[in-house]
Design goal:
By secondary structure, the protein is α/β, with parallel strands linked by helices. It has six helices and nine strands. The model has no long low-confidence stretch (mean pLDDT 94).
């Protein structure tokens, strides 16, 4: 890893899940080729159980997404680590995340870049995420309630953008808000299965790579899915 400059650390107390986090690295992340030491360190540090309901604490380090209310989920640990690794962060970037959800991925990204701007459309989730992040003294994450399919024009351009919900197409606003050399990670496809795309903005146009298959909840908004069937 080149010139990694660590941002301010989270305040993390010792907890009973330290071995579960190490086990998550050993059985879910390292065997699937997550190799960036800063990403592994962040996954080992952030107390994922605090981002889910108390009744789910004991399942927080398993290899699955988990419900966080409002019919949404916290992504599987591997997908969070894979997204973070694919963004190629060095500690200095301004990163936009679409789909704050629980705030867990934002907390991981906050340890890997200078500042995270995260957008959530459901205010109840955004409020809870803000409280969880505050509890960890996670100061370099800014949470906003808005439609993330149009990005965050006032803070653009970004070095990297991570979209944590699946879209029928790549929202053009997100490409517009990437710096030249910037990377966008986004699941694109049908409701039930998508391709995980990495799009790099170049001087002239974009380069698109398919990183694999995936299944995320829907990105709902102006430049995503139009319907609103996931709301309660
Ligand atoms: N990164 C999250 C996972 C979130 S799941 C975590 O670590 O917990 C995807 C989230 O995207 C859901 O909370 C959903 O409400 C949100 N979402 C869907 N469409 C959105 C949009 N247009 N703008 C912002 N958030 C959106």
């Amino acid at each position: 890893m080149r010139n990694f400059a660590p941002p301010a650390a989270l305040r993390v107390k010792r907890d009973i899940y330290e071995r579960s986090r190490q086990n998550m690295l050993d059985t879910q992340l390292i065997p699937r080729d997550i190799g960036n030491p800063a990403v592994l360190h962040a996954m080992l540090t952030v107390p994922r159980h605090l981002f889910v309901d108390g009744a789910l604490h004991s399942q927080a380090y398993t290899d699955y997404p988990l419900p966080i209310g409002e019919k949404q989920t916290i992504s599987q640990p591997y997908m969070v680590a894979f997204t973070a690794e694919s963004l190629g962060l060095t500690g200095k970037e301004r990163v936009l995340e679409i789909g704050t959800g629980s705030g867990y991925q934002a907390a991981i990204l906050s340890m890997l870049c200078d500042r995270v701007y995260t957008v959530e459309r459901i205010s109840k989730l955004a409020d809870r995420a803000r409280k969880t992040l505050d509890g960890l003294l996670c100061r370099n994450v800014i949470v906003r309630v808005a439609d993330g399919t149009i990005g965050w024009p006032a803070e653009a351009p970004f070095d990297a953008i991570a979209v944590a919900a699946a879209s029928p197409q790549v929202p053009p606003a997100l490409i517009d808000q990437l710096k030249v050399g910037g990377r966008l990670i986004i699941p694109v496809g049908e409701e039930d299965s998508q391709k995980f795309l990495k799009i790099t903005r170049k001087e002239s146009g974009v380069v698109t790579e398919v990183l694999g298959g995936c299944k995320f909840v829907k990105l709902i908004g102006k430049q995503g899915w139009q319907d609103d069937k996931t709301r309660p």
